[in-house]
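To: structure subgroup
Subject: Chain for Friday's discussion

All,

I'm putting the inputs and outputs inline so they're searchable in the archive.
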Amino acid sequence: MILSRRAAINTLVAGGVGTVMGTGAYGLAYPRHQIQVVRMSLPVSDLPPSLEGLRIGLITELHHSEMVPQQDVERAATLTMNERPDLIVLGGDYVTWGDRSYVVPCSEGLAKLSAPLGVYAALGNHDDDRDMPAALTSNGFTVLRDARTTMSARGEKLELAGIRFWTQRPRDIARVLQGAEGPIILIAHDPRRLTEAAALNVSLVLSGHTHGGQVVLPVVGAVAARKFPVVAGAGFRDKTSMFVSRGVGTIYVPYRFNCPPDVSILTLKRA
């Protein structure tokens, strides 16, 4: 029997993770709030020489809720701003199950974000199509809902596109990318869109959704995230690069094991 992601996490916490519950109270109370800054140089195909060294800040999986306090949202924003990236990308799942009571507080926690090339957001499977985009837009962020924008960076054109979690068919993604003239960065909440992105010659995909597995057991690994082509960090298919953040918050259970939360700072380099 194949377990769903939710069932796998619950089973691990109830069973296998129970073996480490001698230190579990510590795991519940402290490490899941200790957000790391992941810094990585990432090779990108078709990157113009003048864009080498461009820095992107990626924040995803905030999941502001009873389990994830606003302080964590604000801390993620502060850590990202401290790095002074050229561009900031928000990867989706700002709240859990679209809970309206956390939408505006989450947006307020991110309000300090700014970058020379702007702050752009995509939507995840926990986000609604109205309230969350409106809250993000009120901060001056650009929400890319199956949309693409062309920006000018260091004298070069750079295409940035964002698709909703539910936009999965190749023809629908192709429609969003149609007419792109420069290298394409695609914000796709779900890393499984790597397949479609590679077929469409997308240069870089930025994702979240996996939480890095959230519970990563020694030897066994991230059981709940095995269905994804990249669970956390960098991955490649053909000429397409991908980076998946472990994200900030938690889902289903307020627990992370061997899988700390993060915000990511990606420095682009020529492949």
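Points worth raising on Friday:
The first strand starts at residue 36 and ends at 44.
The radius of gyration is 18 Å.

D.
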